[in-house]
Amino acid sequence: MAGNEPSTLTRRTFLKTTAFAAGTASLATLAGCSQPASEGEAPKDDAPVQVAEETYFQSCMGNCSGWGCPCYVHVREGKIANITRAKLKCPDGSDSPYQETCLKGYANIERMYSPTRVLYPMKRAGERGAGEWERISWDDAVSEITTKWKELQEQYGPEAVAFMSGSGSGMATISYTGRLQALMGAMSIAPCYDNTGMNVQMNHGGLGAYTIGHNEHRDMVNANNLFIWGTNPTESNIVDYHLVSQAKENGAKVICIDPIFTTSAAKADLYVPIRPATDGLLAAGMALISIRDGHEDVAHLQTMTVAPFLVKDSDGLYLRLSDLGKAEPLSEDDRILVMDGGEPVAFDAAANPEIRGSFEVEGVAVKPAYQILLDRLNEWDLDTIAEMTDVPLETIEELAALWNSGLSYIFTGFGPDHYANGQCGYDGMFALMDITGQEAKHGAGCSCTDFSAPNTPGIVNTATADLAGVAAPGRTIHAPHFHQLMEDGELAGMTAPKAAYIYICNPITNEPDRQKWLKSFDTMEMVVVSDMFMSEAAQYADYVLPVAFLYERDDLSSTSNPFVKYTQKAVEPAGEAMGDFEIITALGKAMGFEEYFTQDLTTFLASCVTNDAAAAVGLSWEALQEQHAIWTYPEEPQVVGLTDIILSATGRFEFYHEGIQPWQTWGRNGI
To answer: What predicted TM-score, i.e. pTM, was given to this entire model?
Structure first.
């Protein structure tokens, strides 16, 4: 979608168009596009200006609590001069709701032309963090970095080098870094943020084939009552808020529960302030009232949740046929048992399973999982909940009444995630949904920031597809344990890395324990950061490699959007910046993996959309080049448990989890 036809503007409209586009330096360049007035003649305010303009299809990168919003970028005299909203359509011909482009998206021009961009490979010339650098060539940077990597791996083994990434990009080319890491056998340092919010939702049953966080965002407009709880969409989920407004226009009552009176709270019909970190307790209070007032959805609990599953008193595990000697343990026939008509039967053979009570099955004491939940809820009384949450009892009663007055929907985010034991907040919300049957229905359930956005089929990561059985990355150390590994030199059989390659993340700023990160950096012999800016992590690195901006390279994106998008290179990279694909290719060849780095960027991008799933939805590289964006997602808004399968361990919504274990065991107490 590129063209060179001149567009006619007046001086006034031209200046209005370009005034927001960039900083002062960019404005100076753009002003030079206008036709000069004759000598001695003052320019007329409405004199037409001929400006040659090219338009390219582009997209934000996603994972910004948004949708990787598609857009058009407009180029004048080799510079990005403007960004305009895309005009993509849903399969039914209506405008796509996933293309809003917020202020953060429009500010990409300012970021791209920021004076703080890293334009050339830089090498530390003084103490770490002193800000003393020398510019070096790409050839020297690649040679020095890879020479050191090879020395360290030869002396200490493959995991002497570690790679760390974050969520700074949702584009296809960034995945190519995994190819080099696998070939090197390098260790992974896994970031630690949003993990609670994400994993609690998936464990509950919010993970489906097409969406991850229960209900896809489009379903929000079908709610009768919309609870904004644990997020502030007017500021942190800007492109989501139009769905809140649409729900309200459709007649929904909007309730905002937040410790802070945010803009979202100001626009709500009801604002409920709450003591921080007590969200789960408030949900428990609403659940107790719902049960008291007869809003328990027994049929939903019996058929869609783990409520009737029998749990052994002895070890907290589900009672299975193998416990009775009637099936091989872990076999397909080893069904979880429920009580039906006074007899234990396989859960999928029961007609009317019990969800309350205590039982004994062949000498084994058991009770339904729902009874365990009720026992836990009944440890609390409403007056204590009101006192501890700072929410008056009459307000809790009002919230419960609203919740049960129609289809109710929770719009949450990663607010509860930011507290110790933040899972309790989410667990309480999801248990409330389970008890009252407010899920697996259009207009009822939960969405969580961009976590509940579409999971688009047809695009796959092929960066390591040909390496199966040939190469694989090393082991993973999670960020909370990384510093102990660096301090002790060894942890659970892992040896501290001597070097790190850090990309699309800035751990010194975005991870907890800044001082520990600085100390860990100092422990390593070499730190390499690839970034567009001199971030704090870059400031404490030994080498900084300049990365091309999104508009300076071709790429693919499907992050949080029903469209697979081909984003076009609009301008040349600033300075000597290179795309991640080119950087990794150069490093890979210098490491001696020439035979594995022979494809060009176009070949790689085409491979990502050349598969059976892509063909089934009409997606191909040729079609993308022509259309730029192709909808590959189901037309109906996806709701886990209704239109999408529940990919939990039991295939049901789970408020109870058996055999809970640490995500990773490090062989030490307290870790």
So the answer is: 0.88
